[in-house]
Specification:
The complex is a heterodimer of chains A (about 290) and B (about 230). By secondary structure, chain A is of the alpha/beta class. Helices cover about 50% and strands about 10% of the residues of chain A. The chains are: A alpha/beta (about 290), B mainly alpha (about 230).
Amino acid sequence: MLSLLERIDRRVIFLLMGLAVSIPILFPLPLDYKPSRLAQSVFDAIDQLPEGSRVCISYDYDPASAGELQPMATAMLYQAAMKKHKIFFMALWGPGKTLGSEGVQQILLKYRPEYRYGEDYVELGYQTGNEVVIKVATTDLKLQFPTDVKGTPIERIPVMRGVANLQAMDLVISISAGYPGSKEWVQYYVSAFPGEKFVTGTTGVQSVSLYPYIPQQIIGMLGAIKGAAEYETIVKARYPGPDGKPPPELGEGQRRMGPQLSAHLLMVSLIILGNVVFFLQRSAKRRKEAGR
Amino acid sequence: MKRTVPVIIAAITGFVILIAFFLPPTQSWGEGAGIWFNILAAFAFVLGGANLLKVQLETISSRRPGWGYALVVVLSFVAMLTVGLLKVGVNPEPQYPDRAWSGPFDIASSPFGWSYAYVFSPLTSTMFASLAFYVASAAFRAFRAKNIEAILLLTTAFIVLIGNTAAGRITDGLPDWLSFLKFDVLVANIMSYVSTGAWRAITIGIAIGVAATSLRVLLGIDRPYLGRN
């Protein structure tokens, strides 16, 4: 048995992981979540703003991280739309521009069909320069984004009136998968102008590095899919869909917690099993040496 | 001359950005330097693309191992670049109906948008998701409780791994006097105190190192941007 475990093919582990992830996707588990303080802080930051406030959402990720970040991006956009905020879309990552546009089509215009481009929301798009984009836009938005994604000069866009720079935003949200992202927003936006409100949604790997900025620089943070699931719970309870039922787009975070649960349990089991094999091997080796 | 001019440009730009951060009247200087940086960064995309083509074409022409993959890279690169730059299949914007190229290049119905949605997006997601399989295999083979440090690391990993799932709620029934053993409390304490404390120390160390290195670059002592030759 021990030798069998020692020589276990990695393809068997791949198969186990494949089953652990796919079964809960095919047969969703009925799981419920207690919202954490951080998820509640994100909700409050968006909800406590008066209706029609300016909210900038920066899509700082690409499709590789969309599995982890898209559910929270969707829920944040939905909440901002429900509160009838003016929404400014931008991206520090090239593919982020497209992800933001998808959000407009799939969420914003679905649940707020009365929203008009240029009056209630605007897509500023993607600009090269990483953290320099934040640095310049924080003091002079027009210098960094002379036009929107359609090529219209921003001074001709009604919603941009009175927005000289990012300091005019009532809240900035970064959905971030790495560099450039949340950390650069803290360094070049919040730290340069203390008092600016900033919340973020990040991957699990990145969230560890952002805890030191909570709550002074970062008011609230959604960490990985668990953060998204907790946040969805709060948003769905406060803003049910038009027909009183939760919007189907807002269940993705909770649905993905099922595969995460089974995958984490498999990982823990594999680590324990690996260690059992290791210690049995070691004791067998010692017994053998003692017998000589 | 080839080395002195870039060093002078880098030093002046660096000091301008540094001064602009601390002196509000010089803020516009920093913005100017930032915009120049962004323009150069846009040119870097072109250089990056050219370099990618050069390396892959060399691999193909010399039939090096994996040249088939290089061919896929070149074909994909050229195809995406062509449909993106020429805005193939893009409809004009309603306000500019007589301008054929006025629509966005990545509209969903265009070949670029289609390739993004049905090729690029699933491929990158798959690459990222496949990590889970390798991590599982590595966890079985490499994560060993060989010493005290490894045991501490393993214990912390177990708590965070389980506490970040619905399984963490199995401790919800613990009495109040044992509430510190609840998974959500343990995870919160690990993340807020243990991990954050360690991370702060690392961040401060990195910041000091970056400040020292930046000063060397600004003064022209280190010139990583000039390359080896």
